[in-house]
């Protein structure tokens, strides 16, 4: 079974609105979560590293004011796409670095199933 | 960060072994080789990883050359459900205990009936 969940699995929103995507680690704690974006026929691109209790670290070229990341607990990180536009339509994937108790042990990365965002 | 090179695509007949190569000639001594796969419209799925010894689990085998500059992922009996993009990744460290994975383009493996 999945050890990292994402909600929603897909979402359609209108241009200019904001969308929040949740990433949860199930049955294990994660001090660090990663957010990736994947456009059609392309590979995963890391957007940001989310650390529990501190500010996220964004990759070069990713607007931190547009993609708000909150990692409020050891099992939950959220990505909010603010003022979404059609070019933000993509597949968003999170992953979590497990602490002790995770299925493959600590310091291993577990991926969520992804969230398909479509902005109309 | 060590980079990897993989063929863009491969075909395999159902029931036969699929051998996916990966070159990582600039790998550092403390870097592991990881393999993930991504079935269409799903998140990446962990397959296997290794440092220098060959590894086997219920999904696949990983063969790493003695100089660690290349590796091969082996799916012993490929099925149609193994059709996916396979990523070979060398794990990098991104400050402290954080391990960032950098995905290349991977190999699209198509298993044919």
Structure in words:
The complex is a heterodimer of chains A (120) and B (113). Chain A has 120 residues and is mostly beta strands. In chain A, strands 2, 4, 5, 6, 9, 10 and 11 form a seven-stranded mixed β-sheet that branches. In chain A, strands 1-3-8-7 form a four-stranded antiparallel β-sheet, with no helix packed on it. Chain A is 0% helix and 50% strand. Chain B is globular, with a radius of gyration of 14 Å. In chain B, the strands form three sheets. A five-stranded mixed β-sheet of chain B has the order 1-11-8-3-4, with no helix packed on it. Chain B has a four-stranded antiparallel β-sheet with strand order 2-7-6-5, with no helix packed on it. Chain B contains no helices and eleven strands. The chains are: A mainly beta (120), B mainly beta (113). The interface between A and B is medium-sized, with 25 and 20 residues.
Helical residues, percent of chain B: under 10%
Helix content of chain A: under 10%
Largest sheet of chain B: 5 strands, mixed
- Determine the N-to-C terminus distance of chain A: 33 Å
Mean pLDDT over the residues of chain A: 90
| Percentage of residues in strands of chain A | over 45%
What is the helix/strand order of chain A? EEEEEEEEEEE
Secondary structure category of chain B: mainly beta
Number of strands of chain A: 11
Which structural class matches the secondary elements of chain A? mainly beta
**What is Rg of chain B?**
14 Å
Q: Give the beta-strand count of chain B.
A: 11
Low-confidence stretches of chain B: none
H/E element sequence of chain B: EEEEEEEEEEE
Query: What is the residue-mean pLDDT of chain B, rounded to a whole number?
Result: 91
Biggest contact: A-B, 25 and 20 residues
Largest sheet of chain A: 7 strands, mixed
């Amino acid at each position: 079974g999945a050890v990292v969940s994402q909600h929603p699995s897909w979402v359609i929103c209108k241009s200019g609105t904001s969308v929040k995507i949740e990433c949860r680690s199930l049955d294990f704690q994660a001090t660090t979560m990663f957010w990736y974006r994947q456009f059609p026929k392309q590979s995963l691109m890391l957007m940001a590293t989310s650390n529990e209790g501190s500010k996220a670290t964004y990759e070069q070229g990713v607007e931190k004011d547009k993609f708000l990341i909150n990692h409020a607990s050891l099992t939950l990180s959220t990505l909010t796409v603010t003022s979404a536009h059609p070019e933000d339509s993509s597949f968003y994937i999170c992953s979590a670095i497990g602490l002790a108790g995770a299925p493959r042990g600590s310091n291993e990365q577990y991926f969520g199933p992804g969230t398909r965002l479509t902005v109309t | 960060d060590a980079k990897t090179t993989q063929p863009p695509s491969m075909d395999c007949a159902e029931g036969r072994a699929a051998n996916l190569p990966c070159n990582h000639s600039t790998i550092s001594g403390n870097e592991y080789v990881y393999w993930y796969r991504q079935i269409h419209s799903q998140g990446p799925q962990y397959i296997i990883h290794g440092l220098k010894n060959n590894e086997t689990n219920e999904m696949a085998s990983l063969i790493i050359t003695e100089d660690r500059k290349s590796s091969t992922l082996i799916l012993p009996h490929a099925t149609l459900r193994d059709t996916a993009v396979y990523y070979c990744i060398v794990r990098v460290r991104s400050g402290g205990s954080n391990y960032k994975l950098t995905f290349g383009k991977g190999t699209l493996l198509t298993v044919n009936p």
